[in-house]
Amino acid sequence: MTIAAAFTDFFLAQDSTFVNDASKLKEAVSYRTTLLKRLLAHKTAKQMYGGGSDIRSRIQLLDNGQTHFWGIDDTESPSQPQVVSEIVSPWAFMRTPIVWDEPTILLNNSRVSGKERRIAMYDLKQQLNQQAVIDAGKFIEESIWAAPTTAMETHVSGGPTYSLSCFVSEKANALPTGFTTVETINPATSTNWQNQIQSYTGSTAESSTGDLLYGLSRMSRLVHFEGLPLSGEMGQKETMPAAVYCSISGITLLEQAMRASQDAFVYVGRQDPTYPKPTIHGVPVEWLDILSTANYVPTGAADAYATEATTTSTTHFMGPRYTFLNFEDLNIFFHTDMFMHKHPPMSWPGQPTRKVVYCDTFLNLICTNRRTQGVVAPLVDDVDAAYL
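Request: output the structure for the sequence above.
Response:
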């Protein structure tokens, strides 16, 4: 058996936990991608993967309205109101290729034999697996902030995953442009399925009279829900994992707004003009590099989005967005049987010495409660260019 053929057999026979164990995605990828790390952190197996033809959850969006006071002579007329809605999310199909050339295997292993050759093959295999998982993780991270398209809602199987802008929209009725439902529920008629929306005036955002801090403070209260005292699981936990995400322009604009109303710096030794870890009611405000270039701001046309620095229209304006996320109600969900599932190796067409193993993953980003998510967006298209 040739060295190249031996490597192909070895690659399939000695499978790696990097590609077959869903929990390993956290170890291999999370420290390289900020938001994906938070989405996967502290999630149970039930919250991360499962089977079935699609992903479903249930939410009560209306009050039952059946509890009442009664008198001895009253006549009852009970009914069974339909107050529970079903959230439905299809599987998106993601494919990651692992590719190697037989001449590379031959040349790298022809001078060694026995144990040394096996070690060399194992190292190369791990390298290929690692590259594939990192590539998949980076692709998921970018997909999270992709521009929402109607295909995310209307596709039957396959197609793109939902992006966060599907669940946290600044449009009227919290419906992304071109959408009529989100996860099969219409937020225009089921108003409790709308995310929270606040705005600020871009021209005065960083001044003492600006309303950026007002909008952020108000939003931090709007996305918080307390459970009824008889059952703790009916509302948010006190330790609810949450964060506010913005671009580097957003974090610097917030720092300026925090400095504007005071004549002395209040951080260490009253001399540091920055706010290294700003919070809104204890919730951390963090910036993501990808938000400076992501096309996630609506322009008004269906499936048309732009960056926060270039979007201009009569209703949606350029400037930093602040996205409030509640990770208790957001999940990246993977199919148990199709997580980096390897197909048999194939020869590349027109390149007989090249081998490719396709790894398929079924997944989607799901939101089980939009009321705990929110966005603070600019109202006037005149944010200082220094912040963009």
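Residues 16-23, 27-33 have pLDDT under 50 and may be disordered.
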